[in-house]
Amino acid sequence: MSASNPHSRSERALHLGWFCAPRLASVAIDGAPEWMRDVRLLFVTDVHLRRWVSDARLEDFIAQLADAGADMLLLGGDYAESRRDCQRFFRALARLRFPLGAFCVPGNNDHKSRDDLRKLAADAGVTLLVNESRRVTLPGGILEIGGVDEHKRGDPRSAGLFSNGGAYRILLSHFPAPPDCACELMLAGHTHGGQLCPFGLTPYSVGFERKYRLMAVKGLHRFEDMRLFIGSGIGVSKLPMRLNAEPEIDLIRFSSNFHLLNS
Fold first, then answer.
1. What's the burial of 143, exposed, middle or buried (CB within 10 Å: 0-12/13-18/19+)?
2. First to last CA, the chain
3. Which whole number is the average pLDDT over 139-160?
4. Is 0.90 topped by the overall pTM?
5. pLDDT tens-digit profile of 77-115?
6. Which domains does the chain carry?
7. Could you tell me which residues come within 8 angstroms of residue 203 by beta carbon, excluding any fewer than 6 positions away?
8. 259 in the Ramachandran plot: left (φ > 0), alpha (ψ -120 to 50) or beta?
9. Cα–Cα nearest to 232, from 197, 186, 175, 194
10. What whole-number distance in Å separates Cα of residue 235 and Cα of residue 22?
11. CB–CB of 168/153 below 8 Å?
């Protein structure tokens, strides 16, 4: 991945605060069909909006999403820490429109807004996918977007989520846990890139949340024919700090070439 932010990683290793300004990272996905080459997807996860994040700061973030120039918005869950802030997030998002649509899945921290999430998303022009999929027709082919429920309080079921015929399949899952379906690309969050990563170690390195069988902590990986990308997200959980886990939103582009990825 490459960044559009001029600061080096060493200069930005430590981030203090509940809602740090993210960099825009570029992610290249190889092995896609030729007709996916010009598609640009914006992946945003783990916003964790809180009541003390100002409206002005939220407006700056929404403007950053608008300036990314994406064709489709994909949201990976954990939008806010309260029902009221979840409403704030989606109301702010409602001013944006993406040519190929916008889709989201629930995160484990969205349980306080669970009953309202589908309507909040729909009012903002976003389709909530809970063990569901949608088909988007593009020149040259079909893009299928599927989404599963979150793993901590929900009931994730991905078996049979996609059709069998020739589409490029993207699975949204808040948790980077093994799916029960085949897909070309899986997008996940939840881990915040480790959030606290001294000397390359993260809480997940010592067995945190082992029961969910997380496939990786951050970045781009290949599992047989599936590419997995785990976004570092923007917000934080219990501590208002990130160490060696830079907050980011991710602009995903596609290539029909094959490259060596992390295994």
1. buried
2. 16
3. 96
4. yes
5. 999 999 999 999 999 999 999 999 999 999 999 998 989
6. 28-254 (3.60.21)
7. 194, 195, 196
8. beta
9. 194
10. 9
11. no
